[in-house]
Specification:
alpha+beta, Alpha-Beta Plaits, 10 helices, globular
């Protein structure tokens, strides 16, 4: 079996859930997601594959969106011992705007159904999922480990950004940026979640949080490339509320939020920044049988 044959690993996981194919099908797969662009095209394909197999052959429990997302996560990440999380699988499987809590008892909260003005810019530079993601994750975990050794009760999910100076003395110099990035990114996430819970969103504030997050990824974690930087800068100059790289980095795509009256201006600016293609996108309601 190929090292990353997700179709085969999906079959292995599905068997553990009582889904055992006993006849063949001729299957046609079509799609328009850009490949190796940081927009989770592989997860989307595997979610569709798993949903088809569950519909065709059943399972030993109720088939829900949560079950489909969980199986996809196990097939893509756990079966191959890869560094990815479960954001892609749950976002695609469940749909909407989610806050995903990745603690041991994984949970999620649907906090919105849509975001207006979303624009995706594809750089044309292939992203580097395994190497980039694995390296940054390992460094962040190592930095947290240094803090935990000196502070046994430390919990990254309870730590505040203002507490960085309290802990930095326990971290080697080369690990400090990754610890700060972990605190900063979690702080940004909580602020965004609180805003998304409101009935009337302040999109300028959401955009500012996106920009803060992108700067962490660009200046601290260093996962951008020149064409991505140019696309981001152009989108902001054209009036986008916020712009950030998406995916694991080293290439891939950006996502921007633009005011309704500036969407085309932002699209044109991203193209001028070197984008291979630019799309207006919508928040999807999740994987489903049509």
């Amino acid at each position: 079996m190929d090292h990353r044959d997700y179709f085969a690993s999906s079959l292995r996981v599905l068997k553990r859930y009582g889904c055992i194919p006993n006849e063949g099908y001729n299957i046609e797969i079509i799609g328009d997601l850009p490949l190796n662009a940081g927009v989770s095209s592989s997860s989307a394909l595997i979610i569709a594959w798993i949903q088809f197999l569950l519909q065709a052959f059943g399972a030993n429990q109720e088939i829900t969106k949560e079950l489909i997302a969980r199986i996809a996560y196990e097939a893509e990440v756990l079966e191959h011992n890869e560094p990815g999380g479960l954001m892609d699988q749950y976002s695609i499987g469940l749909g909407g705007v989610l806050f995903i809590d990745t603690n041991q008892k994984m949970s999620y909260e649907r906090i919105q159904n849509d975001i207006e003005g979303l624009i995706l810019g594809e750089s044309g530079v292939k992203k580097e999922t395994i190497g980039t993601l694995g390296d940054r994750k390992e460094k962040a975990l190592k930095a947290i480990e240094y803090v935990t050794l000196k502070n046994p009760n430390f919990d990254i999910k309870l730590a505040l950004l203002e507490e960085y100076e309290k802990y930095e003395k326990d971290i080697p110099l080369d690990s400090k940026p990754y610890f700060y990035a972990a605190l900063k990114n979690y702080d940004i996430t909580l602020k965004a979640m609180n805003e998304f819970r409101k009935a009337n969103l302040d999109m300028k504030y959401i955009g500012d949080l996106m920009n803060q997050h992108h700067l962490v990824l660009k200046d601290i974690l260093k996962i951008t490339v020149p064409v991505i930087d140019e696309m981001v800068a152009n989108a902001l100059k054209a009036g986008a509320y916020g712009v950030k790289i998406v995916g694991s980095g080293g290439g891939g795509s950006i996502v921007a939020i633009a005011p309704k009256n500036k969407e085309q201006t932002v699209i044109n600016a991203i193209r001028k920044g070197g984008a291979k293609d630019v799309y207006i996108v919508k928040v999807d309601p999740g994987a489903r049988v049509i």
